[in-house]
Amino acid sequence: MELLRNIKLSDYSNFRIGGPADYFVLAKSIEDLVEALDFGRKNGFDIYILGSGTNILWSDNGFRGLVLKPELKAIEFGGRVSRAAAGVLMKDLVGAAVSRGLSGLEWASGLPGSFGGAIFGNAGAFGGEIKDLIIEVISLDRDSLRIIKRRGEACAFSYRSSIFKLNAGKEIILEAALKLTPGDKRSLYEAAEARMNYRKERHPLEYPNIGSIFKNVSVNQIHPDNPVLKVAPIKVDPFPVVPTAYLISEAGLRGIGCEGAMISPKHPNFIVNVLRASASDVLSLISLVKNEIKDKFDIKLEEEVRIIT
Fold this sequence. Notes:
By secondary structure, this protein is of the alpha+beta class. It is built from eight helices and 21 strands. It has three domains: 3-70, Uridine Diphospho-n-acetylenolpyruvylglucosamine Reductase, domain 2 (2-Layer Sandwich), CATH 3.30.43; 75-187, Uridine Diphospho-n-acetylenolpyruvylglucosamine Reductase, domain 3, CATH 3.30.465.10; 205-307, Uridine Diphospho-n-acetylenolpyruvylglucosamine Reductase, domain 1 (Alpha-Beta Complex).
């Protein structure tokens, strides 16, 4: 295990925002993970488990404690059951599956982040969700250092959540098995390419960002008499929702900025770092959006990103 000091967390966030971490470990094996957890526990440090940094807003003050980043990246294919380590990037997993003519992950083409992060937050897009593919997840209990195996149905998957998220990171996802199905390689490639192109056209990928800031709003969470239901577009995600981007746009917030951060005119559920933004700049815009949507539509938004203060 290599223990690093005062590492800039802005280098480990797609947002390019964040102060220094007191201690930082890139764990390339389970042994590294165990050693780092033991070190943190013995010294009484707060420990944060970091994925690929694609949906996290770090504090400008950094993190007082130990940031532990698992770097487990093996992928195995065997028939229809595949197995991948948590540190594998989703783009690499999708590419590997498509190149082998295995279907099931095309919806995730262009999805940022790691496989472990996708499981943690039950990532989804275009009607698909990671939970629909998971057979088994193997994790490490941070306190007891015990290996835990769960079938997919025991992972308490729900909209952008899982038992791992509900347990506040008390377990570290190590790897998971997923079921894919044989398909036509050319058709799979075209489907994956279409999803990728959609993201490039609709999302402000030209600026540092951490994806959709807020969850879409379930129709069931909106009062039946709320007039927004009569005019808003309804999409399936994977159940009927009002897109938060629509609400932000209708509230007139496209392009609104705060110092170096801006609500994207291209996709208003993204906040982008246009000019060396600080976490405070982003938090100000998050607060503004939540207040405006509550005032104008009587709808309470919930963040999809993780905010570390």
